Amino acid sequence: MTEPLPPTPAAAPPSGPADGGPGAGRTPVALTSAPGAAHPPLATAGVSGGAPAGVPATHGPSGASPPPEAVRLSHAQIRTILIGVILAMFLGALDQTIVVTALPTIGREMQSVEQLSWVVTAYLLTATAATPIYGKLSDIHGRRVILLIAIGIFLVGSVACALSTDIRVLILARALQGAGGGGLISLGQTIVADIIPPRERGRYMAYFAAVFMTASIAGPALGGILSEHLHWSAIFWINLPLGLAAYLLTNRVLKQIPKFHRPRRIDYAGAGLMLAATFTLMLALSWGGVDYGWGSAQILGLVALSVLLWAAFAWRLAGAPEPFVPISLLANRIVSTGVGAVLFAVGTMVALSVFLPLYFEAVFGFTAAESGLALIAHMAGTVTGAQIAGRIMGRTGRYKTTAVVGLAVAATTALAMAAWPPLGLWQMEVMIAILGMGLGVIYPISTVSVQNAVPAHQMGTATGILNFARSLGGALVVPAFGALFLAGAAVADGMTTQEVVLSGTLAGADIAPAFRSVFLATAAGALIACLFMATIPELPLRGHETVKA
């Protein structure tokens, strides 16, 4: 980590300024926790001004007395936590991409090509459904124990995958692996929120964006190399040293993090309804256009069932004594608006990661490997945008204008790509780099703004919901882009996007115009996300003070 760690002085009296008094230096972080208290009274530095309408007033001065003891995390401890968290997040991100290029080898060895897609789908289904569950559990039982459980489940699933000799066993093992992987990313972001104040947090969220981009590029390449030169099981064995390192790095140091969680009963009925609703929706999105037509009885039935389950979940939230997702969290305008922006912005980015390589193959005749290399400009732009947004938040304590400008630039760039004739290679590289920069601002801004707006004992739930929206956005937007592409290509029913690109390339046909609908959809997704961020209430980011529980 090359960035200096955030200066956070010891807990100040409630009347102290948010950014520390004179002489406040780069001292160890002070995180207060009364011994034995599940939810200790924490001293907080107030932020001037009231909360905007629709936002709970969680930032005002607290009248609570400072607790008798404070747990101090040194910079070395924080660095250890960050390295462990980044490793855990990298595991979760890598296993969504590393398997793809190994699938042909797996299919040949297990003599089952028809069920290969389930090796990917099973992981995505359970990981998406489990994400909000982990967030809620961490608010009840603490971050450390839930993160270690997630790492443990992920590693057990990895071993089961590596030892599988039957495709059905591999699919079940991938589902188990996803049940662990679903907690790695959101819990990592929540742990960082526990130890770094919001104003300093954006620069670290930019590192997390780099983790996702690295996994997107390195995953397919690594999967192909390991399966071709070693054995396909190596893509799962590689998780063991990385997972054990993450476990050992975080296990001891995470004990020093204060316990913001509050013992509560779990609404099992609400959790079950949310799991079932998510599972049926993801199943419909995975099968639609691939195994069954979008208008088929199977897909329509799954969508109808998902709608009924979501309605039952909403009814349960309204009537449960302790709902799985607190009503106050859903009523928070920053949370609801941030979730909407993330769903469209990240969904658009996921769809671009699918369609840009196909564009390079269809228009420039690139191989799959060359298309992956051409995508580096877009990934680098995304990381740069996230880094810039994080630095601006750290210096100004504001985020709204940065988000609106970045997303507006992305929408304008996508419109230009759709309007102009097919661009040359270098012009295209510049355009996708700018597009990535514009979209990249959403990574740190969405996470930090939402976490800044909720109390610490709801941090896990809020972060879990945000990451759930990211996964769901990708699942919704990718098939939508696919449908628009196929409509623009005017192909026969039943053909997939990959089949259209392959057949067009072999026939020497010009299918570049079909991608205009993809770029127009990109502009629409960025614009909708921009409108969400334009209406988000803006709270000044808390600085160097102890987080209120």
What does this protein structure show overall?
The protein is mainly alpha-helical. It folds into two domains: 402 residues, Up-down Bundle (Growth Hormone, Chain: A); 53 residues. The protein is built from 20 helices and two strands. The chain has a two-stranded antiparallel ribbon with strand order 1-2. Helix 1 crosses helix 6. The longest helix has 32 residues. The radius of gyration is 23 Å and the shape is globular. The two termini are 28 Å apart. The N terminus and C terminus are likely disordered.
Topology of helices and strands:
Layout: E1 29-32, E2 70-73, H1 75-94, H2 103-110, H3 117-141, H4 143-163, H5 167-195, H6 198-229, H7 234-237, H8 239-251, H9 268-287, H10 297-319, H11 327-331, H12 333-364, H13 368-374, H14 376-396, H15 400-419, H16 425-440, H17 442-452, H18 459-489, H19 497-507, H20 516-534
Antiparallel strand pairs: 1-2
